[in-house]
Write a structure and sequence with these properties.
Layout (H helix, E strand, L loop, with lengths): L3 H9 L9 H11 L5 E4 L5 E5 L9 E7 L4 E8 L2 E7 L11 E5 L3 E7 L8 H4 L10 E3 L4 H7 L5 E4 L4 E3 L3 E4 L2 H17 L7 E7 L7 H10 L3 E9 L19 E4 L5 H13 L5 E4 L8 H4 L8 E8 L7 E4 H17 L4 H4 L5
Parallel strand pairs: 3-12, 3-13, 13-16, 14-15
Antiparallel strand pairs: 1-2, 2-12, 4-5, 4-9, 6-7, 6-9, 7-8, 10-11, 11-17, 14-16
């Protein structure tokens, strides 16, 4: 199997924008196929991998979801061979000028995002340091005739920054939200290859989290798990947010969510487990919704006890997100330890107690 770094670099080198996840789904399926007993794709496009437990049937079911879709762009207009763009997922237009991209037209085309000279912008924008996306364009270097033949309105545009390894066991690139969590879930499945567990485990790479939570709604409805865990990213401390209580240490371990999306008994179980393992971790207060697939998973059918585990990430929703490989590995290990310790009657023994 690929190691954590190599797998993650491969996953973030692939497109897979929200609603158009096929390229990355195929790569994840290749990684999960040797680690699972069954692989399938939901009608909406989420990837489902079943690893059967060793308990007597009918076994309880655990679903662990990590969304595989990424933010990106879409061609909204073609003007004299230049491409106007709109967002897929949440993107801050301030980070776009100068970014290399791939335009997924009739064939993939390299391009770069640029903004006009200030003197060519409307007067009310000429003095602004940040220009709205409506005034940015993608230049492919092709003639208007070539662009018209190769690109259509609605074609996708993905970031093309290559992965960059930095010091301190960190990796920089686009789409680490949330391919980092897919990699952590893969590390969990690899560890389970050598360990016994009673419960059936469904590993799910969900679609459309950035736009609709589509996979977060539909996969739990299809699989009907007894428990669910959303694995996602959260903000890591960095410039301007070192003292912010909503940011967490890069390389300091997984972050356990606490709030109305999270079942108190599951939070307690993971907190106790992390302390017993002497595993570095933190707690993130989520006073409203968690901003993850847990929003949907928790309320599917009659309701599913749900947990959120996050990996600290710097510069979220930019082409230069940064993650610690140690945090990914620790998250995978924490998940595997939880799974192997699940008793058959765990659900019967838990209750919602604030």
């Amino acid at each position: 199997m690929e190691n954590t770094k190599d797998l993650l670099k491969r996953l973030i080198s692939l497109p897979g924008l929200s609603g158009y996840e096929t390229p990355v789904r195929e790569a994840i399926a290749d990684a999960w196929r040797p680690l699972a007993d069954e692989i399938s794709v939901s009608p909406l496009g989420s990837l489902h991998a079943l690893r059967r437990g060793q308990g007597a049937e009918p076994r309880p079911r655990l679903l662990i979801a990590a969304h595989m879709d990424a933010i990106g762009l879409m061609v909204s207009q073609i003007v004299d061979g230049f491409l106007r763009i709109t967002e897929v997922g949440g993107i801050d237009a301030r980070i776009l000028p100068g970014q290399p991209v791939i335009v997924h037209g009739r064939r993939d085309l390299p391009g770069v995002i640029l903004q006009p000279s200030p003197r060519l912008l409307p007067p009310h924008l000429g003095e602004k340091s940040a220009i709205e996306m409506d005034y940015l364009f993608v230049d492919t270097g092709l003639t208007p005739e070539e662009v018209s033949a190769l690109v259509r309105v609605g074609d996708l545009v993905s970031f093309a920054q290559p992965p960059l390894e930095l010091g301190g066991d960190t990796l920089v690139g686009h789409s680490l939200d949330n391919r980092a969590s897919v990699t952590a879930l893969t590390a969990c499945l690899e560890e389970l290859q050598h360990r016994r567990h009673f419960w059936d485990v469904w590993a799910v790479a969900t679609v459309q989290e950035e736009e609709t939570l589509g996979g977060g709604w539909t996969s739990p409805f299809n699989l009907r798990p007894d428990l669910a865990i959303a694995v996602d990213v959260t903000h890591a401390r960095g410039p301007g947010v070192n003292q912010d209580y909503r940011a967490f240490g890069l390389g300091k371990g997984p972050v356990l969510g606490w709030g109305p999306n999270i079942h108190p008994a599951l939070f307690k179980a993971f907190k106790n487990l992390a302390e017993r393992l002497d595993l570095p971790h933190a707690v993130e207060v989520m006073p409203r919704h968690s901003g993850t697939d847990a929003i949907a998973m928790q309320v599917v059918a009659e309701g599913i006890p749900t947990m959120v585990i996050s990996i600290p990430l710097r510069y979220m929703h930019t082409p230069v997100e940064m993650v610690s490989l140690k945090d990914i590995q620790r998250t995978g290990h924490l998940l595997a330890e939880f799974i192997t310790g699940l008793e058959a009657d765990f659900v019967a023994k838990i209750s919602w107690e604030d």
